[in-house]
Specification:
Helices cover about 50% and strands about 15% of the residues. The chain is α/β, with parallel strands linked by helices.
Length: about 350
Amino acid sequence: MPYLETVTDISPENLSRYDAVIDVRSPAEFEDDHMPGAISLPVLSNEERARVGTIYKQESPFRANRVGGALVARNIAHHLETALADMPKSWRPLVYCWRGGMRSNAMATILSSVGWPSGVVKGGYKTWRREVVTGLEHEDSLLPVRLIDGQTGTGKTALLQAIAAAGGQVIDLEGLAHHRGSAFGDFGEGEQPAQRLFESCIWDQLRQFDLSRPVFVEAESALVGRCRVPRRLWHSMLAAARIEMRVPSGVRADFLLSAYEDIIRDKDRLMEALAKLKGLQSKETLAEWQALAEAGDYRALARQLMERHYDPLYARSRKRREDAPVEVVSLESLDDAALKQAAARLVSGA
């Protein structure tokens, strides 16, 4: 007897009951955003979805349903013969589409008919999106954020990673945004997630945290690359206690060479990043820095960028904030041992 359930609870605990969360929307919809851990098994391709939508608007809903039904059946058959061919009898999937309608019910009905106990998310992706927007934009209570702050090259992201390894609660905005938050920050062409997916990743972490404990976040601007920090988190960051990292300039320069090694290896990307500083620095200064890049004197370039560009920016931003750090982490090295020790101290004192 086929077993098909309607699911209203999309908490992490309930989602863990399922062996797979299947997004049957088009690949473009999936790329824009999806539920945590979902896999993409579209029942309509991008082109097929557009074609059915055109028929619906220009001809009739009945013909759109007939054409779409044939395409959906064909695509589900393909998934059964490929991605799902080796799933055991005990396998338990949860399926969703845009609104929890025709696409997800078609897939789940066939999966349950095969013998796999299947669920359909009531309201589909829109149920998940509603939860994200409520939690990150409409909820006014501040999150227990502690900001990891400091000048460029002080290893803030590395410390965050060490805090996470030590058992602390961390939101790595740069990691989630695939961007290091500066003119030199992109991880490669076209790699940043869509805004909605960025928000989903943040909310999925937050909803699993114990909010009676601190959440460590690196001090960032409201935009990390092109990704906007959601309102509730941003307001929490503005109000948060600040932990300031202080590291000697020589150590910072060496750390930058390691952290930005991918850009150093790609001279075109490096020159493109320097060009973004036009208007912020004089033509003479930019020419000097471009000459250092051409000569391969990257350590001198790193120190110049720190001392003449990023350190003054940092000083101005701290002056606007007008608050003293609640704690200062002074490190003479940014090696693993130093970061691990600092992280353990912060987590134990939290």
